[in-house]
């Protein structure tokens, strides 16, 4: 059952990834993600449904528009494949669970937000703010667990985690406003929901891992002279990467640290 679900996750994730390509391009520009239909940016010809099959269509078209021959960026199939792989990894991690929709949603917005932050150094409210009620509703479903025994403690912990992480980042931006943007603060609350739902270990490790990974990356840029002191880097991707570390490895890392003491 889990193997079949992982395979289905790849398909679902790839389809979602196709939509994320639209989100990543249009949301920073303030455009609708629903209309008009996707079209070639060179010749403006609408993309036919059979040319919009995730990954497969790009391969069959050899990365070029059917109408004008313009090159189609390899980023499109990469996002589709990456989202499919991300959904599969989430399914492998959780197994058959009512929590799957919540964490699939997190994987989807994580990919979109990371790419947008890298592209335009911004975390759009259009994605972050709706994630609060959506994530809360999906995590409530997971806590309700319709086919088993409800467990509301994780949901309460999720709400506290969101408040704590939002407050921590809010203080950080007041103390050092050049270090991050308010979009990072708002994203922190969303990540706090998920990390708190999993556990306090996940919350602490996820918060610390974001700064550790971002710091290591920044040092690497300095050593390779690809950045100077004071150069800013998008922090959203490192917050998301740190959250992933906290969710998956939080309890193990916490146990290891306690063992050292």
Automatic annotation (TrEMBL):
The keyword Transmembrane helix applies. Residues 11-92 form the Prepilin peptidase A24 N-terminal domain. The chain crosses the membrane at residues 6-25, 102-120, 127-144, 156-176, 206-223, 235-258. The keyword Endoplasmic reticulum does not apply. Residues 105-218 form the Prepilin type IV endopeptidase peptidase domain. Its EC number is 2.1.1.-, 3.4.23.43. It is a multi-pass membrane protein. It is found in: Cell inner membrane; Cell membrane. Its main location: membrane. Keywords: Cell inner membrane, Cell membrane, Hydrolase, Membrane, Methyltransferase, Multifunctional enzyme, Protease, Transferase, Transmembrane, Transmembrane helix. It catalyses: Typically cleaves a -Gly-|-Phe- bond to release an N-terminal, basic peptide of 5-8 residues from type IV prepilin, and then N-methylates the new N-terminal amino group, the methyl donor being S-adenosyl-L-methionine. InterPro entries: Peptidase_A24A_bac (IPR014032), Prepilin_IV_endopep_pep (IPR000045), Prepilin_pept_A24_N (IPR010627), Prepilin_peptidase/N-MTase (IPR050882). It comes from the Bacteria. Coiled coil: none annotated. It holds the Pfam family Peptidase_A24. This is Prepilin leader peptidase/N-methyltransferase. It comes from Cellulomonas fengjieae. The lineage of its organism: Bacteria, Bacillati, Actinomycetota, Actinomycetes, Micrococcales.
